[in-house]
Amino acid sequence: MIMKLINTVLLIEDNLGDARLFREMLGEQDSHNIELTHVQCMGEAEVYLSQRAVDMILLDLGLPDAQGLGAIRRAHAAAPSVPLVVLTGLDDESMAKQALQEGAQDYLIKGQIEARGLLRALRYSTERKRLERLKDEFVSTVSHELRTPLTSISGSLRLLTSDAAGNLPRPMARLLAIAHTNSQRLVRLVNDILDIEKMEAGRVVFNFRRADVRSVVRQAIDANQGFAEDYGVRVRLEDGCIAADVRADPDRLLQVVTNLLSNAIKFSPADGEVVVAIEKKTDVVRITVRDHGPGVPIDFKPLIFEKFAQADAGNDRKKGGTGLGLSIVKQIVDRLGGEVGFADARDGGTIFHVQLPCWDHVASLVIDRDAKPDAVRLLLCEDDLEAALTLREQLRRVGFATDFAYSEADAWTCAAATQYRAILVDIHLPDGDGISLIVRLRELPQYRDTTIIVVSADPSRGRDDARSSKLNVLDWLSKPVDFDCLMRLLTQPAAGAASKRPRILHVDEDDLIARALGEIADVVTVNSIEAARRALMASDFDLAVLDQALAKGASPGLLPELRDSNGNVIPVVVFGANGTNSADEAQKRAALTESLTSIESLVATVRERLASRQRAYPEKSYA
Amino acid sequence: MPDIRILFVDDEPDIREVVDVSLCLDPEIKTRACASGADALVTAALWSPSLILLDIRMPLMDGLATLASLRENPRTSHIPVLFLTARMQSSEIEHYISLGAQGVLAKPFDPMTLAALVRSHLPGSAGRTF
Fold first, then answer.
1. Taking Cα atoms as reference points, which of A248, A106, A137 lies closest to residue A201?
2. Is residue A245 within 8 Å of residue A343, measured between CB atoms?
3. Scanning every residue of chain B, which has its alpha carbon at the shortest distance from the alpha carbon of A159?
4. Measuring CA to CA, which residue among A265, A348, A342 is closest to residue A300?
5. Do B18 and A144 touch (CB under 8 A)?
């Protein structure tokens, strides 16, 4: 067998001493030429993995920004095909066991590692990962291959057992019905196996949005009606169930309820009843499915969500189950951020329940209420609640308040209600691509120059969008966000941050001048004093260029407002075709004001003004 | 009312037969079958079907290549195409639709409802179902 060579290893470890030790150990084995890259936190690792491929990940389970199983999940999500060896403490071998179940290939106990053992673990996990991948591919291929003959078999049997085939002699009809039922079961089994395999390989994308539980439950009941009739079972939604919205992927939620229903139907006695109820609690919505079946045997309770687990194998096989339905339910509910469980019903039968985060609760998190009153407020447009909460927590520590928008529509409402200093936009939102949101925001005067940063799992997709070049997006960050990088972007001077070029507020109606000034600075041209005022409120400028005629009319009101957000006076250059002799207010600020008549001299003066301003405020260094 | 002509293309003879029986449960539907993409291009141009039911995974010329060729020929470019596939993943479905398919049906299909499903994808019908 050919062993895949390990050339590159990513070590995710916050303890520098341990990191040095690993480096030395791998160095001792230098004949193998392993290149070790060391990062100190998960955020950094995720960024690295988004850009480079590695052959192996060594992961410490006690990182500052990720611990335990959470760390494993994130590493796995960042590089699903890369073998993972976790590093645990001596007292934490139970964690190591869980780590293997979560998808790590091997573990090493800190303090007990020596060079040859380390290398053995690396080789072993590479091989193990390769075999896992082969297994997954095999399962997927076989399942697909099975469907082709199944299409002919189940199709033919269905046609035969239907009226279309005419009347068949009784025993023959009975045998064909058996064959048909079992071919259907085989189809379900193949579908379930594929579902499980996809979910375990992390290939299922969840589209979170506001989902109406009652309508999902009704769909599931409808879908199971025929199945219920076959078993002589009635399925109904409890009377008076209120509408309740949760945050979920409605298609996946439908799958959960459908599986719970078909399970309940199978275990119901003939003429039994299955009742679905929806309850709204403070933070969660609870869906319950109650049957009047024999109940879950006590020995089986701990195994119920395991794959291919069936209460009484002989019995359940008769029920036509695949043994995968509840396992799929569990996996989906976990991913939905919910909880699933079951209990004996008081008068016999079983009640399964699923709890999901209530939409109202999720919506109540939109405004960051816990931030300090003086915090700088940002808007984060992101539909992944967990990711949003993590980022909010990180930003809060450095003095930012972060409001959430889960969709473009939300973002639009928030932006209208609050003036944000910066907006972070995920370009994969449930109701749009984020780009159209930025286009619309940029049309608003108060957001024309606001810092906008795009955050996305695939930033190149939006960046290549033809519309993007005009959006003045400060940067396109890949997900998960490199927090240091984000901080650098957010703490740049708020104004002009987008290009690091000086910014000029140009109050005039003349395009020619705007174009000339555009050569040396970012120019915001407005054609009225009102518009100038709005522009000044929205962002900072380094210099104002006023048309003489407009300056005259404006002088009493506008000039005192010509200050940046730190209160520094913004120099003014007055430009007019008619000479400069009018003794207006602007001229009285002679030290800061010059009047010019030719565009060349205007540009030269502006250049010089900007240079001297930079000397005065060196923190505003222009690239 | 003119007949509805459905052309279906699948390299598996058994599936072709099941599809044929299923569609013919609807008395207004007339069918023809082809075993390869290349055959389908010729038959589609000569017979002008109302809709083509196209298997994706076929040897030599697969469903995607067949669709592309159908779209290039002015005599067949307007004919709606429904894919029939054993690989049913939502991301792939979106991709197929973006290539110009009218919709995607999963294998195994229910023979009792196949004709109605196909009808719902004909021009002028209410909408498409997946």
1. A137
2. no
3. B111
4. A342
5. no
pLDDT of A620 above 60:
no
**Which residues of chain A make contact with B22, given a CB cutoff of 8 A?**
155, 159
- Name which of A285, A255, A286 is nearest A351 in CA terms: A286
Interface test with B, best of A144, A148, A161, A204 (most B CBs within 10 A): A148
The reply to whether residue B25 touches residue A187, judged by beta carbons under 8 angstroms, is no
Chain A hits for B112, CB-CB cut-off 8 Å, are 158-159, 162, 164
Mutate to test the interface with A, among B107, B113, B117 (most CBs of A within 10 A): B107
Q: Do A154 and B108 touch (CB under 8 A)?
A: yes
A151/B18 touch (CB, cutoff 8 Å), yes or no:
yes
CB contact under 8 A, A159 and B87: no
How far is it, in rounded angstroms, from Cα A286 to Cα A244?
A: 9
| Shortest CA distance from A141: residue in chain B | B87
**Which has the closest alpha carbon to A432: A404, A409, A456?**
A409
Mutation pick from B10, B11, B12, B14 vs chain A, by most beta carbons of A within 10 Å, is B14
End-to-end, the C-alpha distance of chain B in Å comes to 27
How far are the Cα atoms of A192, A205, B105 from residue A140, in angstroms, in the given order? Answer: 11, 17, 19
- On whether the CB atoms of residues A50 and A78 are closer than 8 A, the answer is yes
- CB neighbour class for A240 (10 Å; exposed up to 12, middle 13-18, buried from 19): exposed
- The token pair at A405 is 């928008």
Q: Show the domains of chain B with their CATH numbers.
A: 4-120 (3.40.50.2300)
CA distance A76 to A337: 18
Six-digit token pair at A394? 């990180």
Query: Which residue, B2, B7, B14, B3, is CA-closest to B107?
Result: B14
Is the pLDDT assigned to residue A494 strictly greater than 60?
no
Q: Are A46 and A135 in contact (CB under 8 A)?
A: no
The closest of A427, A418, A325 to A377, measured between CA atoms, is A418
Model-wide pTM > 0.80: no
Is-cis flag, bond preceding A560, omega within 30?
A: no
Q: Is the pLDDT of residue B124 over 90?
A: no
CA distance A158 to chain B (A): 7
pLDDT digits (tens, 9 = 90+) for A570-596: 777 777 655 444 445 444 444 344 566
User: Distances from the Cα of A585 to the Cαs of A526, A551, A552, in angstroms?
Assistant: 20, 8, 7
Cα(A369)–Cα(A270) distance, integer angstroms = 54
Taking the CA atoms of residue A101, residue A102, residue A107 and residue A110 in that order, the dihedral angle to the nearest 10 degrees is -120
Domain annotation for chain A: domains and CATH numbers: 1-204 (3.40.50.2300), 209-360 (3.30.565.10), 365-491 (3.40.50.2300), 503-616 (3.40.50.2300)
- How far apart CA B88 and CA A153 sit, in angstroms, is 19
Determine the Cα angle at A191 with ends A188 and A193, to 5°. 110
Which residues of chain A approach chain B closer than 8 Å at the C-beta?
144, 147-152, 154-156, 158-159, 162, 164, 187, 198, 205, 251
All residues of chain B having their beta carbon less than 8 Å from the beta carbon of residue A157 are none
Q: Name residue A400's beta-bridge partners.
A: A376
Tell which phi-psi region holds residue A496, choosing left (phi > 0), alpha (psi between -120 and 50) or beta.
left
pLDDT one-digit tens code per residue, A100-140: 877 889 988 888 888 888 888 888 898 988 888 888 788 87
For chains A and B, what is the number of CB pairs under 8 angstroms? 52
Nearest to A522 by CA among A538, A498, A546: A498
Residues A248-270: what's their mean pLDDT? Answer: 91
Distance CA A243, CA A359 (A): 12
- A554 Cβ contact partners less than 8 Å away, ≥ 6 residues apart: A507, A529, A532, A546
